[in-house]
């Protein structure tokens, strides 16, 4: 597997590895899966970090997993979450894992957002050197 998280896994896949609230549908359903299950879980964790909530709060873990698999339920994203992060999370937990992003694509979006913030800060605070600039001097 490449360092970007892309590639083919050759090891044996285990069923129901993980916690139901963060588990991708294909793992819960005992289907063959690949690294995209981790992209799905990352999207759920993004939601958790951005909202401070517990995914599918109000449901038991089993109810949450069944809702995800049978009804396509996903966490509701509040309007205060930045649009780019909202879209990224939704892409990560896409119903069809083949349609979800690779980790390299997730990283590219996050890096772009950081660079925009750093550029805005330099503009606002008079061009102070950034960590990346200092590391590459």
Automatic annotation (TrEMBL):
Superkingdom of source: Eukaryota
Pfam families: PK_Tyr_Ser-Thr (PF07714)
Protein kinase domain segment(s): 1-114
Record-linked SMART domains: TyrKc (SM00219)
Signal peptide start and end residues: none
Protein name: Protein kinase domain-containing protein
Organism of provenance: Sphagnum jensenii
Organism phylogeny: Eukaryota, Viridiplantae, Streptophyta, Embryophyta, Bryophyta
């Amino acid at each position: 597997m490449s360092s970007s998280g892309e590639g083919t896994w050759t090891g044996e896949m285990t069923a129901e590895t993980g916690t139901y609230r963060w588990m991708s549908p294909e793992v819960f359903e005992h289907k063959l899966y690949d690294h995209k299950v981790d992209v799905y879980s990352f999207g759920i964790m993004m939601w958790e970090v951005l909202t401070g909530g517990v995914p599918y709060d109000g449901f038991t873990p089993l109810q949450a997993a069944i809702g995800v698999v049978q009804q396509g339920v996903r966490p509701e994203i509040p309007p205060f979450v930045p649009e780019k992060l909202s879209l990224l999370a939704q892409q990560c937990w896409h119903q069809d894992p083949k349609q979800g992003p690779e980790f390299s694509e997730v990283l590219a979006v996050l890096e772009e957002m950081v660079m925009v913030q750093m550029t805005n800060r330099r503009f606002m605070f008079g061009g102070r050197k950034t960590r990346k600039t200092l590391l590459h001097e």
